[in-house]
Amino acid sequence: MWGLSLYSKNRTKANIFITLFCSLNLLSACALNTVNTSPEQLIRKSYISQLNNKERDYFLYLPKGYYSEPDKKWPVMMFLHGNGERGNGKSELDFVLMHGPVYQAWIQKQDLPFIIISPQLHMFDFDQRGIGYIDNRKFADIPQRQAQGTPLNSESRPKQAIQRAQSLQDMSDKSPLLPLGWDKVELDLINILDEVSTNFNVEHNKTYITGLSYGGFGTWFMASQYPNKFAAIAPVVGWGHPDLMQPIADQQLPVWQFAGGRDNAVHIQYFYAGIEKLRELGHNNVRFTVHEEMGHDAWKRVYASSDFYQWLLSHSLK
Predict the structure, then answer these.
(1) Most CB atoms within 10 A, among 35, 151, 165, 176?
(2) pTM (whole model) above 0.85
(3) Is residue 7 domain-shared with residue 93, that is, in the same domain?
(4) Which residues of 190-199 are buried (b: 16+ CB within 10 A; e: fewer)?
(5) Owning domain of residue 235
(6) H, E, C per residue of 215-247
């Protein structure tokens, strides 16, 4: 009995030693893996605009692990900003960091497993129209990258009561495009997508496009012109005109549309006709989410949500 007890004690000590050894090795492996994981990067890439033959820059976000996993292919997301972030594509490019997926990934340090393309729309003459949110913007307002990341975003709540206006069914007198919008640089956007797809580790069947406000309208336009280019689209607080829907329905391109119920900039009653047109055309992969208590900045909640990015990743080009 004494010998068996001694054996058991020795075996227990051996097991403790083995467990401790394995645990230390596991910790070392985890630490080594952390050290060897390349950090996320935000770089500026130059291109020549087809609009005026001048050089401009766009932001390219490379996710954590991009360089440390050279054989991995990454999904691509193109983001089109709103009207207030226009600029010269050089000294004013940082205004693009104000909102959207790059803001979430770079400024807030939300771990997004995408290569993110974020170009800047030409100013055209919007800085000469007396638009307050453009005239009064300051470089000091551009957010700086957080030390630890702050995943929660502040959301405004409009003071006015929710007033549901009757949905418009006849959009024949409404233009499908906003003035001097993203449609003016569609060749630039396609050239940028092609350049990134050629020179970076891209998973070619997982290319997505999303945008807010002016960029939401631009998302609908690009999807209508290149429906087989994208695996899914997500226009945020920007409605789609029924005239744009046929190619999207033909391709059965997955759509997730977002709106703010209290949006005084892009009113809710304009959203339904395009969504209904998709249904009439037999499109069966459409989501429409209205954040009833939110205004135009409903994009803050959308782009902070992990569900949004998981939905994109669930779709691939056929």
Answers:
(1) 176
(2) yes
(3) no
(4) bebbeebeee
(5) 41-125+166-313
(6) HHHHHHHHHHHCCCCCCEEEEECCCCCHHHHHH
